[in-house]
Amino acid sequence: MRISPVVALLPLIVLPAVAADAPGAATTSEVRMLDCQGPFATDASEASLKQAFGAENVEYKTVPGAEGVETQATVIYPNDPARMVTVFWWDEAARTKPATIQVQADYAADPDGSNYWKTDVLWQSTQGVKIGSSAAEVEALNGKPFKMSGFGWDYGGFAVGWEGGKLDTPEGSACSLSVRFSSSVETPPDGAMGDTELMSNSPEMLGAKPRVTEFSIGYPMEDTPSR
Length: 227
Prior knowledge:
Helices cover 10% and strands 26% of the residues. It is built from 3 helices and 11 strands. The chain is globular and about 50 Å long. It has helices spanning 46-53, 135-142, 203-208; strands at 32-34, 58-63, 71-76, 85-91, 96-104, 123-125, 147-149, 159-161, 176-183, 197-199, 210-218. The chain has one domain: protein yfey like domain (protein yfey like fold), CATH 2.60.460. It has a 6-stranded antiparallel sheet. Strands 8-7-10 form a 3-stranded antiparallel sheet, with no helix packed on it. Strands 1-6 form a two-stranded parallel ribbon. It is mostly beta strands. The longest helix is centred in the first third of the chain and has 8 residues, at 46-53.
């Protein structure tokens, strides 16, 4: 199966549903699950996110986009990179019908790009993917190697095919998982760079030592009814 994640059309940079929190209740010791239920269900809206996380912890703002184009999104905990979640909407005017809900490494904390995967991000997917997971760890979660895009371009580093593994979207699922990696070596092999597709266990990717720097859940438009 080839993955065409919604996130690839949006900014660059799924265990039980996460519980709604009282404002400011999160601590730096907890791990939260990003799931397409609870606060992040298909009928979520900016208004419902404010109810779940506290209005003071939710902000609609400009965020970086693909190919240098900025876009608008709703950001939960915008001033706390360890808890930050970015929500893009199918219905941007009403800020309803989530398109992509994204967790990413704190890029600003490491501008030279050498330690993105070491940042303290508290979220993980329901399958166990988290910021900093190695390609080998994601292979174990998937039950087999998977296909990746090469690094060094706007859509680089994405898992583009789970090859029938456990991370493929189950029949009837409300959302799908998208995962993006960065190389954790200073100079990745030339064969791992550019607009190409390689298996995660290929010599080129083994040499690049990929680590997860972004993951998200995406929703098909037709599966996101308004409240």
